[in-house]
Amino acid sequence: MSEPKGSDSQAPHVPVLLAEVLGALAPLEGARILDGTFGAGGYSRALLEAGASVLAVDRDPSVLPHAERLSADFPNRFKFVPGTFSNLDELADGPVDGVVLDIGVSSMQLDQAARGFSFMQEGPLDMRMSSDGESAADLVNSLAESDLANLLFAFGEERKSRRIASAVVAARANAPIATTTQLARLIEKTIGRKPGDAHPATRSFQALRIAVNGEFDQLVGGLFASERLLAEGGRLAVVTFHSLEDRIVKRFFDPEKGAPTQSRHLPQVMLEAPRWDRAGKALKAGAAELGRNPRSRSATLRAGVRTTAPARVMSYAGLGVPLSRGAA
């Protein structure tokens, strides 16, 4: 599951790879930065304290108290707009110098049992970042067995997806699966648990959350929206928390990574001018940060600087986006 990126406490939250993100977006004094995944406001606060102005975006209404605190602390340099980062270029009220995206579920969402994100707490099997659309319970109780298995494999890389889907279909024939712990216990009973391993429901919960919230669609949309929004020299920093997301970001910055290999015996296809410079290198948390926050172990930052090349038409081709017939 994607690691948390926020906190519901009153204390200022320090998000993962903060120094690296600030460095990727520098210089910040006087810059205008769009924080497309506001959460608890950790990146926004740090950007504001570094002298930037921030336009923050989030679709989760529970973040409003954090936005109100920043509005009070930085009344002239902070603005919050509700919405999804997949259309951040439409939400921006003018040009920006940089965009930061922190992909995944926040601590606020994990910590609130009623949101249904965590298999560690009893709650309704919901997982919606907003209140719209199908819930995880809707998918678990309505998808055909093959579609559910495909979803768990494609979005969660769950190798035992067929066994889990079969067990879910058998269980829901008696009564709907309605809570997080009900599903987690069923998965653990079905595939077992070895000492020291992650909880056996981890990958399945990740897959359901991604499907419920259309997270891969949001990520691709946000990347291309950033490319449309940023002019030459604009900077984009993206923090991801699992390999599926990181692969998409890597190939977005460097399309050649996902392009078919050209045969030297055939006429060579001319590649388009790159849209991003100084892009593609993956940055991970250092030993000091890992010591302070073990959750940062799975975080990866990739960043790039916009070139003069015109923005591309949005396309999934070559990005390695997982496909699932059962996805929402």
TrEMBL record:
The enzyme's E.C. designation: 2.1.1.199
NCBIfam families hit by this protein: 16S rRNA (cytosine(1402)-N(4))-methyltransferase RsmH
Gene Ontology cellular-component annotations: cytoplasm
Alphabetized UniProt keyword annotations: Cytoplasm, Methyltransferase, rRNA processing, S-adenosyl-L-methionine, Transferase
Function recorded in the entry: Specifically methylates the N4 position of cytidine in position 1402 (C1402) of 16S rRNA.
Binding-site positions, S-adenosyl-L-methionine: 41-43, 58, 85, 102, 109
SUPFAM superfamilies assigned: Putative methyltransferase TM0872, insert domain, S-adenosyl-L-methionine-dependent methyltransferases
Cell compartments where the protein resides: Cytoplasm
Annotated catalysed reactions: cytidine(1402) in 16S rRNA + S-adenosyl-L-methionine = N(4)-methylcytidine(1402) in 16S rRNA + S-adenosyl-L-homocysteine + H(+)
Protein's recorded name: Ribosomal RNA small subunit methyltransferase H
Any one GO molecular-function label of the UniProt entry: rRNA (cytosine-N4-)-methyltransferase activity
Transmembrane segments: none
HAMAP family linked: 16SrRNA_methyltr_H
InterPro entries: RsmH, SAM-dep_MeTrfase_MraW_recog, SAM-dependent_MTases_sf
